[in-house]
Amino acid sequence: MSVVHAQPVEELVRRAVLKYNEKDYRGAASEIDEAVQLKKGETDERAWHIRGFVYKDIYVKEENRARTSEAREVSVFSLQRSVELDKEGVLDKNNKGALAVLAASYYNDASDIIEERNPENLHEAEEYYARYRDITAFLQPDSSLVSKDIDIHLAMATAHRKIYESNREKNEAHYELSNEQYSKVLDLDPENWPALYSVGVALYNKGAYNLERLPELEIHDVIKTEGESIRSIQSALPFMTRAYEVNPERIEGVKGLKYIHFNLHDEEQHEYFNEKLEEMEKNLDSSEKKIKKK
Hints:
Blueprint: H1 9-21, H2 25-37, H3 45-62, H4 70-85, H5 92-116, H6 124-139, H7 146-166, H8 172-188, H9 193-212, H10 219-246, H11 251-263, H12 267-293
Helix pairs in contact: 1-2, 1-3, 2-3, 3-4, 4-5, 5-6, 7-8, 8-9, 9-10, 9-11, 10-11, 11-12
């Protein structure tokens, strides 16, 4: 009968490092996985540190930074475990540097998904961003991520809006999803100009689009659609007004109020913003001419 002796943690770590240096990442993973499963290995910060780097390189070099990589998740878990165990902070710089790189990879994946604007997987961008957020909060517990949160919600809102506008009948759900993202922005920053303006534009455009369709509708649908369209344009008014109040120098807000008041048959306000728009456009033309002369 042969006796199988359990390998000590130090020996398993040594063999893992050797295979890692030989770029045998899977072999290194097998050795280091066994090490951290041992009682002593469970609390060995160096073993977890090495495991984090082994799986990081599996993710980067063997899996070509695949979004769905399980190795990336294993690497994050291992590096965080090493940070928690490393009371003296000996491995702190390397552990946290690697974690920052992995956090950035999740953020980049979220950004790429948003840019692709695929209705089937756009929701995954929020999941990848959440991983970026969790790791960043682990690294910098006292840091504020509100600015990043706003950026991602604005980008998601724009992606949903463009999907909706590509086919309004087919992608109606993305209209609501876009506005939900803008609402999240306004919860974080009630005076966020891009969100206020964009919600105003979205509500106005929806109403205007439906008004344009009236000639195509059956007579019994006309009154209902016309009423819904006017209500949508009315709903746009407080958002566009607030956007104007937040930044009265933005010509887009003035133009938006001009058209909203026109469709609501408010001649006085329409004329006021029309005159203001003409004045702003005149000043803009003068500024452009001065720049060209220079």
